[in-house]
């Protein structure tokens, strides 16, 4: 089945992107094209959201390379508290912020990490995904993608807010997203705040060596770039 088949549903397009042998951002583009084909009004609203965030410099004030990564202590999908210090005792860390289990771009991003999780482990790297969702949804996401790394719950986007990564989706997106996604149930609040998807590579000294922060949630750090960054952080 071709990745750009015009008869595909969104879920079929996501599955086609999963099966595509291509860099992560090319796979994500398959989903973005499908969304635009299936719901042009929604895609246009996303474009407006992204433009607003870019004009406001959203994410620009997040911790940068050379900065100490602020500490966290968050529950994983089993309820165990995991801290940044715990991860760094074992090797450099890859800290990934995602929007939620419902986000197909986040699912593809997580699958891309899963595909190289053994290579990451061989480099001594530790991965943690942070999402603003209740534990049962983080647990479901981990099981869906087959991850061996933890999915941590950042209730009310507290940690993301401290890193200048949390944004309000806006009234237009709240209305459009509310048709298919029950974020208040997923998150346990009705704020309609989400983290800007971001990836931080953190050396064992606690300092950020590289980061990827983009208010356009349809783009993420490519997996090859992540692996190279992790090699440099060792």
TrEMBL record:
Pfam families: Redoxin
Alphabetical list of InterPro entries matching this protein: Redoxin (IPR013740), Thioredoxin-like_sf (IPR036249), Thioredoxin_domain (IPR013766)
Molecular-function annotations in GO: oxidoreductase activity
Protein name: Peroxiredoxin
Species of origin: Mesorhizobium temperatum
Domain spans labelled Thioredoxin: 63-234
Matching SUPFAM superfamilies: Thioredoxin-like
């Amino acid at each position: 089945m071709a990745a750009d088949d015009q008869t595909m549903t969104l879920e079929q397009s996501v599955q086609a992107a999963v099966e595509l042998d291509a860099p992560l951002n090319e796979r994500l583009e398959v989903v973005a094209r499908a969304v635009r084909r299936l719901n042009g009004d929604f895609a246009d609203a996303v474009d407006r959201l992204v433009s607003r965030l870019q004009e406001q410099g959203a994410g620009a004030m997040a911790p940068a390379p050379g900065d100490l990564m602020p500490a966290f202590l968050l529950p994983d999908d089993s309820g165990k508290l995991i801290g940044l210090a715990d991860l760094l005792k074992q090797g450099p860390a890859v800290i990934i912020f995602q929007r939620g289990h419902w986000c197909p771009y986040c699912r593809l991003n997580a699958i891309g990490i899963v595909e190289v999780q053994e290579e990451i482990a061989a480099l001594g790297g530790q991965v943690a995904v942070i999402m603003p969702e209740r534990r049962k949804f983080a647990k479901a996401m981990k099981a869906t993608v087959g991850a061996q790394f933890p999915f941590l719950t950042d209730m009310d986007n507290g940690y993301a807010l401290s890193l200048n990564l949390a944004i309000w989706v806006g009234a237009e997106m709240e209305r459009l997203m509310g048709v298919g996604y029950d974020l208040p149930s997923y998150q346990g609040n009705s704020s309609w705040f989400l983290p800007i998807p971001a990836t931080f590579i953190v050396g064992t000294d606690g300092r950020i060596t590289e980061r990827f922060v983009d208010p356009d949630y349809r783009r993420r750090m490519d997996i090859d770039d992540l692996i190279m960054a992790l090699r440099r952080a060792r």
